[in-house]
């Protein structure tokens, strides 16, 4: 992953971090995946997990963040269930996350909760009607 690919995402995360806590040195993002759930035959969380780990490692190794700042992520398996995903968003918010990646399958409720907390959510696979617009 090149630095140019990472910079826009890091800029978004930095904006969130400095709005929520100017003194935070460990910036934590939440990762919501469907690893063991029934819904979603493909369960992209198996693939995205490696990309998430790699991206965070690259951000920290390339020193893209300001001095004395590191990026980390916490994970919760939503099992492809709306209630599990919503619970995960609230739990991660309590732990101080600054943004969310995921969930897959449906995300309408989770995105609404995230928006109500004024935190960005970037979903990597959505087929739910209000958010998915086929070409």
From TrEMBL:
Gene3D superfamilies, sorted: 3.40.50.2300
InterPro entries, sorted: ANF_lig-bd_rcpt, Peripla_BP_I
Keywords: Membrane, Receptor, Signal, Transmembrane, Transmembrane helix
Location(s), subcellular: Membrane
Keyword Glycoprotein: no
Keyword Lyase listed: no
Signal peptide feature range: 1-24
SUPFAM superfamilies for the chain: Periplasmic binding protein-like I
Stretches assigned to the Receptor ligand binding region domain: 50-124
GO cellular component terms, semicolon-separated: membrane
Top-rank taxon: Eukaryota
Bilayer-crossing regions: none
Protein name: Receptor-type guanylate cyclase Gyc76C
Organism: Trichonephila clavata (Joro spider)
């Amino acid at each position: 992953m090149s630095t140019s690919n990472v910079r826009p995402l890091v800029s978004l995360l930095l904006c969130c971090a400095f709005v929520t806590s100017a003194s935070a040195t460990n910036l934590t993002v939440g990762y919501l995946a469907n690893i063991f759930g029934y819904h979603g035959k493909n369960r992209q969380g198996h693939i995205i997990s490696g990309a998430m780990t790699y991206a965070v490692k690259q951000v920290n190794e390339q020193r893209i963040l300001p001095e004395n700042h590191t990026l980390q992520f916490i994970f919760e398996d939503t099992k492809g269930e709306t209630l599990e995903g919503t619970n995960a968003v609230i739990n991660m918010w309590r732990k101080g996350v600054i943004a969310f990646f995921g969930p897959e399958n449906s995300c309408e409720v989770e995105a609404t909760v995230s928006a109500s907390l004024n935190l960005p959510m970037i979903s990597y696979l959505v087929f739910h009607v209000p958010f998915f617009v086929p070409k």
